[in-house]
Amino acid sequence: MSSSQSDRARQRRRIIQAAVGAPVVFTLPSGAALAAASLTCDDKSNLIRNTGIGGTDTALGVEAAPDGWVRYRLQVYEINPSGSGGKTNGITFDANPSSSSIWYTVNLSTGAATQVTVNGSPSLISGLYYYALVDYSAYPSSTASAYVYPAHAPVGSPIAGGSCWTSLLPTSSIGGNNVIN
Amino acid sequence: MRRLGDAAVVFDAVTWQTHLLPPAAAVVADLIDELAQDGPLSSERLSRALREELDLDSDTPEIRELLRMFSEIGMLDT
What we know:
heterodimer; A: alpha+beta; 6-stranded antiparallel beta sheet; rod-shaped; B: 3 helices; globular
């Protein structure tokens, strides 16, 4: 054996002897398995859609309670729409409801919001809220009315979940739940 | 096999698994690699080389397990 070979053998033995325990091979967690466990937002939304975690297969524009989709919470007021024949519940996107001129009534069966003109001063119904579906593609517009779905038809591709939303908008925080305000 | 100092990393393109060889395992892998260049590696030849070069007894459970792992990830064909 040459001196370089014996040097190499000596070095290798030194490494073996320096090891704590027997030589072993470590297999790192499979990237494929991790990837499969890390669903994209679209997959998460599909999951909610298909299993009805949000309560329905598709998301309505406005709901009486938060569900699995990313929602914007709106305070409910008692309003007196013109020509409606009586008081009902309504919402506004205006930060100052007392001066708001744009009000909506909500059909909670269809999730549709209909703009109305109100008479008199709306009165706040404490503790009652509606939850409007957020349109990811329109967010963050400056006003909530521009990025929620008061649509008449159920929405097929909303974004679901707090972590999903945050991953799409990493500078935003929605407190671990699905309501952004 | 890629070196990381005295350690090594092996990526299996078939299973897409990544295996980390600490220095001691990397030394054994190097020896196997050298021996394999002279042709098919018999168990006897490997055992002799492990004993003479590295003072390792291939008949111990730990070394048998190491060699089994090398076979499993395709680094040893005896």
